[in-house]
Every structure is written in C-alpha cells, then in structure tokens.
Design goal:
The chain is α+β, with helices and mostly antiparallel strands and about 625 residues long. The protein is built from 15 helices and 27 strands. It has a domain of about 240 residues: Rossmann fold. Helix 10 runs parallel beside helix 13 and helix 13 packs parallel to helix 15. The termini are far apart.
C-alpha cells in the first residue's frame, strides 16, 4: 500500500504531482559561504521518496482531531504504531517515536501532563491504570505513568491542555582532594581560617545513589570526603542514577570544607526541579544553590518554571550557579546550535503541501547537516511558552535525502510551547535538518539545537534555559591542568582556555517570565528585539579527581559550577555581612581574564580565584 492510500483526502494524483515538483526542485549554487569560508554545495534537497514522506506527514497532521492535537507528535506516532495505523513507508519515523516514548513491558509510559489539576482528573488517571508522580496545581503539572493506549482518551478531558513524553534532561558531566583547591587557590583561604563555615550550599543533580537502594553519602562522610551533617532532602535523593550529585558535593567540600551541604534531585520534570529549588532556599535556608542539569525542552527565549524559581530565590537573597552546558562553541568550531530569524525559502526550492515553506539557513541552503552525530535535536522559536500560535515543524532526513528519519509535527494552536523535538535514536553524521513553517505563521526567531552534536552551519548562543537565565551565574569549564605544569594555581591568559565542549553565549530572550514581550512587535534577531544576556558570567575548573564511582576524573561544566559556587561560599564566610551582589562583585573583580580580552562569550569575566576574591572582600 502506498503512503497516499492511507491518508483521507490525499489522492494518488496529488502525490504524483508532488513527486514531479520535487524532481524539479532547486539545484543549489555550486558554492556557498558559511561564516566567510567556502563550502561545497549540498546535494539536491530531497529525493522524490523523502518529499512524498514529508508531504504525507503534513497532510496527516492537518487531519488530527482537537484531542489528538493535545498530544506531542512523538507520542501520537507511537500510539498510532501501537494500533497498527502507521503510515506506510515511514518506518523510520514511527520507530524513532516508539524509541522516544519507550513503553515498558506492560505498555506503561512516563508522561508529563499540563492541565488544570483537580481531584477528578487525578482520579481519572488512576482509573486508567496510571500511577501519579509529582503533582503541582500551581505549575499545572502532573508527572505520571500510564498505559500508552490511554493517552488519547485522557487528552479528551477538557482539563487537559497537553500530554508529552516525560521531559528528558542531561547533566553537564577527604581521602581524595580535588585539584581545584590548588587551581583556584582555595587551600590558602582555608588555611587562613575561612572555610565556608556558616554558609549552606544546596546542590542539585540527578542522584546521590547509583541504584535505588544505594546511598553514596554515608561512605563519603565516613571517608572524610563529605562533611558530617551532609543530607539529602527526604524523598528527593533522586533514586537510581549516576550519583553525580555526590561528586558535585565532593567539589564543594574540597573547596569550602566548613560549609553545610544539602542535596535535592533535579529529576522528575521541570516543575519538580523548580519546587526543589524553592525547598532548598525556604526550608533548608541555603545561601547558595548550584545545579548541573539542562532540560532539553526548557524555553530558550523566555524563563520557564526552573528559571522562574531561580528568580524567586535570588530575589530573596540567595546566589544561584549553574553549568553553561557541554554543547560546544563557535570559537572552537564545536557548536551544534543555529540561531537566527526564519527565512522563507524560494517556492521552487520547497514544494511542500498546504503552503508550508522551508527555512533557508544561508543562501538557498534549505537544510543544515550534522558533522557530529546527535541523539536529541530540537527546534524552538520566539513565541511565548504555553501559548504558541505560529506553527513550525522539524524534519530530520538521511544524508542522501531519500528517507525521513524523524518528524516532529506537533500542532501549535495557542496552548502549547514553541517546541518540536526528535530524540532517542542517534542521527548519524550527514543527517539533514529541515525547518518548515506553516502557511500563515508569522516570521519568528528560531533555534535549532543538536545538544552535543555539531552542525555544518553553526552560530553562537549554545547555552540556554535556566542555565543561562538572567538570575543565574553561568559557569564555563577550564581544565585544571590546561597549562600542563601539574597542580598549580591558574594563571589566566592563553594557558588556561575554556574547554572545547563548553557552551558559549550570549543568550537572547524575547519574553518576560509572564509571557509578555520585552519589545512588543519585535521578536527577531535581525531587528535587535528582546534583550541580550551576557553569558556565561565566569569560568571554573573541571577534570578534577573525586571518590564517587565514575567521576575520576570529573569533566564538564557540571564540575565547573560547584567549583564556582564553593568559591562564593568562601567569600561569604569571610564576609558574612556581604549581600549576594557583593559576593559576586568580589569574584568578578578578581577573576583571571582568558580567551578574548575582557568579558567574552566563552569564559565571561574569566576564572574565579578564591584567594583574590576573599582578599578583595576583606578590604572592601
């Protein structure tokens, strides 16, 4: 059976016309310029087989009912595949969706539900065989497991606004003392009597245990690698995971051995992480909070739930540090991000149905290609979170342009985020990424992110979400032994560059946290809409040793963030009267300049140094 024969209202003749148009699609220029250097022209955009697949997917999207439109497209494709209703010829698309949704052996899946939460809705989920996890009426959020077969019926409930696969995140990964104590000159500060005493540091990551029954805290306290009294918030230790939280706590304890340390997981969805940020501040009185987590679905152009929680605790006097991310930067040629304004391609180059138009990444460059493989690719644009009315779609096609590997075709009808995502199945080098705009959609700033992949046409602005929020101190990573001179203090300059994988800035945002535009009527990069945040702010060490299994050594901006947070704890212990702003001023004023002179998009102000920052605080 052909693709067209299973889609209501699409004739074989219409598909034939699409195929003929595709064959005649643009022959792209012999040579194009990418960031000032010549590159070979790509092969023709799509072969007839892939064009027919894209057309079929868009036609099917338009036929979804109101309830079906509430489902994330990957969830919808997985559901249709389970029913035996997958469109013919699109095996890769449905297999990708099934991998993303990943039902267990009993058919249960983990989902995030956006809804007006009440007892009737929770009872319905339970009656469907669901199990409730985190529930927040304030955040209109439910994390639950339920049968895949139940999601469409649940979406029919008028209280439900959106159902999507459970949000994925990544961590940006005293018998043993880390080298950061020497590299940041923390050892001298501690010897001088300033240990972080009187300061409470909250740490957030995946877990403190490797299995659900394990707990790395007790053995690390016994060995002296964590201070007595180190705790995890009850019920929020994260369960089974990598125990990256304990490795981060080791860094804090090495730099600021007198500080009290409290852990809360960042797992469980964006709303649960936001709730734990508030708990660390309001219940455990944390002066400083640090995390190393990036939720893929976080807003790039507006503060989401996590960033809003950070805004709250920082407004209340806390300091918040986070990792910049490990998704590369333009300086090192490792960026996997493309940001800019949507540019409509010529009609002859993008013969899609229903008036859809492809984005032009350059000069008649209708796709961007992976140069490093990626397992998560997403598209975001400058509409408000939870209220996108401009419909864009994301397609990943194989290197030959013959087969659609993944399609994300969620309907943006004013109640969902401006987000499309393809994930779980690795996309190989050469895979083509295409962005399609529905007819009638307004031009918006767009962002394609491959999350540790790399792109042929790349831009800066890799760090995003709460990691790059205005209230966050965003930390880039510098290898502690970059100068290859052994365990010695950082000296700055060219001898201590940021890591090649460290994410760069700046971060452009277009909306206030409440969804109102910062510059009404101007939501584009090209007209300088919104506001630009200088990110990251500072840099700190990674590559240090820790006792936690799997973190010897501990690389990534995940290690840099707790180093920076611990330096702040030393400054605060030296000057308990200092406000958060004064602590940060001391750190920035004494940082070692690296990378481009002055503040730059790779390292911020440079490497924070404990000794210099404390001396500044004591004399100002």
């Amino acid at each position: 059976m052909t693709i067209s024969s299973k889609i209501k209202g699409i004739s074989r003749r219409a598909v034939g016309q699409l195929l003929l148009t595709a064959v005649a699609a643009a022959c792209l220029p012999a040579q194009a310029q990418v960031r000032g250097r010549p590159v070979a022209a790509p092969q023709p955009l799509l072969q007839p087989s892939a064009m027919a697949q894209v057309s079929a997917l868009l036609q099917e999207k338009e036929a979804r009912s109101a309830s079906q439109q509430k489902l994330d497209s990957q969830l919808w494709y997985a559901l249709q595949a389970s029913r035996g209703l997958a469109l013919d010829g699109l095996d890769e698309v449905y297999a990708s969706a099934q991998a993303a949704v990943a039902p267990d052996a009993t058919g249960q899946i983990s989902v995030d539900i956006t809804a007006r939460v009440n007892d009737r809705l929770l009872a319905q989920i339970k009656a469907m065989g669901g199990v409730l996890g985190f529930v927040s009426a304030e955040h209109r959020a439910i994390r639950a497991t339920l049968p895949l077969s139940a999601v469409e019926a649940l979406a029919a409930n008028a209280l439900v606004q959106r159902i999507e696969p459970a949000a994925q995140f990544t961590t940006n990964v005293g018998a043993i003392t880390g080298q950061g104590t020497i590299a940041h000159k923390a050892k001298q500060v501690v010897a001088g009597g300033y240990t972080g005493a009187g300061v409470t540091v909250g740490v957030m990551s995946d877990t403190v245990g490797i299995t659900a029954a394990s707990d790395q805290l007790a053995p690390l306290i016994a060995s002296g690698d964590l201070p007595a009294g180190t705790i995890a918030v009850p019920g929020q230790d994260g369960g089974a995971g990598t125990s990256e939280g304990t490795a981060m706590m080791e860094i804090v304890a090495d730099i600021a051995p007198g500080a009290k340390i409290v852990f809360a997981t960042a797992n469980g969805g964006q709303a649960n992480m936001a709730n734990n940020i508030l708990t660390l501040r309001n219940v455990y009185n944390c002066d400083i909070i640090v995390d190393d987590v990036s939720y893929f679905a976080e807003g790039a152009f507006q503060d989401g739930p996590i960033a809003q929680a950070i805004n709250t605790v920082v407004a209340g006097g806390a300091m918040y540090f986070s990792s910049a991310g490990n998704s590369g930067n333009v300086t090192n040629g490792t960026s996997g991000t493309w940001e800019g304004d949507f540019k409509a391609g010529a009609a002859s180059a993008s013969p899609l149905p229903l008036g859809y138009t492809l984005h032009d990444f350059g000069t008649a460059q209708y796709y961007d290609a992976l140069t490093v493989a990626s397992t998560y690719i997403d598209l975001k644009w400058s509409d408000p979170l939870g209220a996108s009315t401009n419909d864009y779609d994301l397609f990943v096609v194989n290197a030959a342009g013959t087969t659609v590997l993944c399609a994300s075709t969620t309907v943006q009808n004013g109640t969902v985020d401006p987000l499309e995502a393809c994930y779980s199945t690795s996309r190989p080098v050469g895979s083509r990424i295409m962005v399609a705009q529905k007819a009638g959609a307004a031009q918006r700033a767009i962002r394609v992110d491959t999350h540790r992949g790399a792109l042929t046409i790349a831009t800066n602005g890799s760090t995003f979400g709460h990691n790059a929020a205005a209230s966050t101190m965003t930390a880039a990573a510098v290898y502690w032994g970059a100068a290859r001179t052994g365990s010695k203090p950082f000296v700055g300059g060219a001898t201590n560059p940021t890591e090649t994988f460290s994410s760069d800035g700046p971060r452009k945002i277009f909306y206030n946290p409440d969804g109102t535009p910062i510059t009404p009527g101007n939501l584009l990069f090209g007209t300088n809409g919104g506001t630009t945040l200088a990110k990251p702010e500072l840099s700190a060490a990674d590559g240090n040793f820790s006792r936690t299994p799997g973190f010897l050594p501990f690389f990534g901006t995940s290690a840099a963030a707790p180093h920076a947070a611990a330096v702040a704890a030393l400054v605060k212990s030296a000057r308990p009267d200092y406000t958060a702003a004064q602590v940060l001023t001391a750190m920035k004023a004494t940082a070692l300049d690296i990378r481009a002179p002055g503040t730059d998009q790779d390292s911020g102000v440079g490497i924070v140094m404990a000794w210099e920052a404390v001396q500044y605080a004591l004399t100002h």
